[in-house]
Amino acid sequence: MNATFAPERVEEVAHWLRQRPGRVRVVGGGSRQHELPDCDGAARLGLGRLSAIERLDPGDLTCTVLPGLERRELDAALAGHGLELPCLGEGTLGGLFASDPVGPAAHGAGNPRGLLLGCDAVLADGTPFKAGARVVKSVAGFDVHKLLVGSRGTLFVATRLHLRLQARPRAVRWVERDELAIDEALRLCRALRELPAAPDVLALRRSDGGAYAVCARLVGRTRLVDAAATQLALQDREPGAPLPLPSPATGEVVRGLALPSALAGLCGALPARGAFAWLGGGRFEACSPDPTTTDRLLAWCTANGCPATIVAGPASRRGRGTPLDPGEARLAHGLRTALDPDGILA
Ligand SMILES: Cc1cc2nc3c(=O)[nH]c(=O)nc-3n(C[C@H](O)[C@H](O)[C@H](O)COP(=O)(O)OP(=O)(O)OC[C@H]3O[C@@H](n4cnc5c(N)ncnc54)[C@H](O)[C@@H]3O)c2cc1C
Q1: 99-116: pLDDT as tens digits
Q2: Is 47 in the pocket of ligand 1 (CB under 6 A)?
Q3: Does the beta carbon of 199 lie inside 6 Å of ligand 1?
Q4: What does the buried/exposed string (b/e) look like for 190-202 if buried means 16 or more CB atoms within 10 Å of the residue's CB?
């Protein structure tokens, strides 16, 4: 790959792109670049120096940040005001929103798509544009800025993000129950989802050995949080959700989406052994020992309407998965062609 251009001012991004630098790979913190398709010869647009909180409005529960700002720096600043960005994910804010690694961590919980109020951005040919707004009550029209979420740097470069925040809940407790059989684990997931103050992170995981554990972040009033933990016999645990799974030395990893109604069926279709984790918003990852077992799992996903893809394993197998919806594939292609007709963003 060619040298990195690392602008120090937002305006430099559009100026540099207008000079037609050839193929360009957008880089935030760079933590996941190795998982993206090869882009040999592309110049790197490194956004790490565009790092600042430009505006923090605790009264409106909104802020504006530059894309290279690290999530942990924003979290530290927000904590001082009793606020938080209610979604999981790390790295730079630009990278986190462009890759949307885990989606909602529980049914109805915050996620990058819902938290992005607007952005300033630059098209591949250097044309700057603004979309959405910096306030919660927005204007009519297409939410063009939401195209950033999941675009992984292939549609446009976000140079400024307007984000929705929330007040930190009065009580927060990370809890867990482990060494469960699958039926007990599914019952516990259901009980947690039915709590009057449902957790904002809910996760089910299976260890290599086959035992299940359920983990959650309980939030709300201290009395209710403590009562729920006692009633469901939950133990305190370290903060943190179990996705992503650590990459296994051998075999493959399938990543997909399964709604709670499909969870029992999915668990029944998993390889007999190997790690598995599911988040309450639907994302899951499952390790598989060999291609035959993976293909069996993908066949179940296809038959049951759960989109899934191989994300780790031999290069020849990565990216295979359940069939894409032809209409969606056509739209995605159309968007790329409209926003980046020369295929500059790699
Ligand atoms: C392929 C892939 C797989 C991932 N898998 C997981 C996972 O399993 N679990 C997990 O927790 N997290 C995952 N993540 C997210 C990752 O852990 C980070 O949270 C996230 O990538 C931000 O880190 P970063 O700043 O290093 O971003 P980078 O790795 O530098 O960039 C991430 C993506 O965002 C694009 N991008 C960065 N900044 C901008 C911008 N300003 N405008 C437009 N596009 C931009 C890049 O081109 C790249 O595609 C994944 C990310 C990617 C790209």
Answers
A1: 998 889 999 899 999 999
A2: yes
A3: no
A4: eebbebeebbbbb
pLDDT at 1 over 60: no
Q: Which atom of ligand 1 is nearest to the CA of 345?
A: 47
Residues 13 and 114 in one domain: yes
Q: Which one of 10, 65, 99 would you pick to mutate in the ligand 1 pocket, going by the greatest count of ligand atoms within 8 A of its CB?
A: 99
Q: Hey, whose CA ends up nearest to atom 10 of ligand 1?
A: 101
pLDDT digits (tens, 9 = 90+) for 232-265: 999 999 998 777 787 788 999 999 999 999 999 9
Ligand 1 within 6 A of 152 CB? yes
Range of the domain at 307: 244-326
In this structure, are residues 200 and 110 in contact, taking their beta carbons and an 8 Å threshold?
Answer: yes
The Cβ of residue 297 has, within 10 Å, a number of other Cβ atoms equal to 21
Q: What is the mean pLDDT of residues 304-312?
A: 94
- 261: CATH: 3.30.70
Q: For residues 47 and 97, state if they share a domain.
A: yes
Lowest mean pLDDT across 57-71, 125-139, 315-329: 125-139
Using alpha carbons only, what angle is made at residue 72 by residues 282 and 275, rounded to the nearest 5 degrees?
A: 35
130 and 248 share one domain: no
For residue 11 and ligand 1, the question of a CB distance below 6 A is answered with no
